[in-house]
Amino acid sequence: MRRTIGLLAALALCLVLTPPVEAAATAKCTLSITPKDTEHDTTITVQCTGRAPGDVLDYVTIKGADWPDGDDTQKVCKAVSNLWTRVIDSQLLNEDPLGDEIYVEARMRTPDYKLYYVKTNEVSGKWGVNVYVGEPDCGHLP
Q1: DSSP labels, 55-100
Q2: CB-based contacts of 45, cutoff 8 Å, min separation 6
Q3: pLDDT of the residue at 1
Q4: pLDDT tens string 6-17
Q5: Are 110 and 54 in contact (CB under 8 A)?
């Protein structure tokens, strides 16, 4: 009996002294696409908040959402901070003849070089007049 009471007391003490477990932080990335002042230029911006301080946006993969078949990759671009913004040729975003649904798969990197991926919101629109042919670049700074 004493042993049982002793074990219960020790368990109660552990429960009181153990801090509550915090939920893991969630990373978030937001995509915005804005037409520029010329017919062919579009500004694309990805803003990310990592799971923890020090996490950075490493690469962005611009993708077209194609339902019911698989999504297609439009371009993969290097990033160096949690805000990636470029002016690109709008043809790069033209992934469907009837309308375009664009999102970004953001590759995040922790300070100890572990990788994880975050999907942005999807932006619908109609960009460009032709599906891009050739190897598009990652654009330039606005």
Answers
A1: -EEEEEEEEE--SSS--EEEEEEE--SSEEEEEEEGGGG--SSS-E
A2: 31, 32, 33, 34, 83, 84, 85
A3: 53
A4: 545 555 544 444
A5: yes
67 touches 99 (CB < 8 A): no
**What residue type is assigned to position 43 of the chain?**
T
Q: What is the pLDDT of residue 123?
A: 96
Residues 6+ apart with CB under 8 A from 38: none
| pLDDT tens-digit series, residues 53-101 | 999 999 999 999 987 677 888 889 999 899 999 998 888 888 877 888 9
B/e letters for 14-37, b = 16+ CB within 10 Å, e = fewer, are eeeeeeeeeeeeebebebebeeee
pTM: 0.78
Cis amide leading into 53 (omega within 30): no
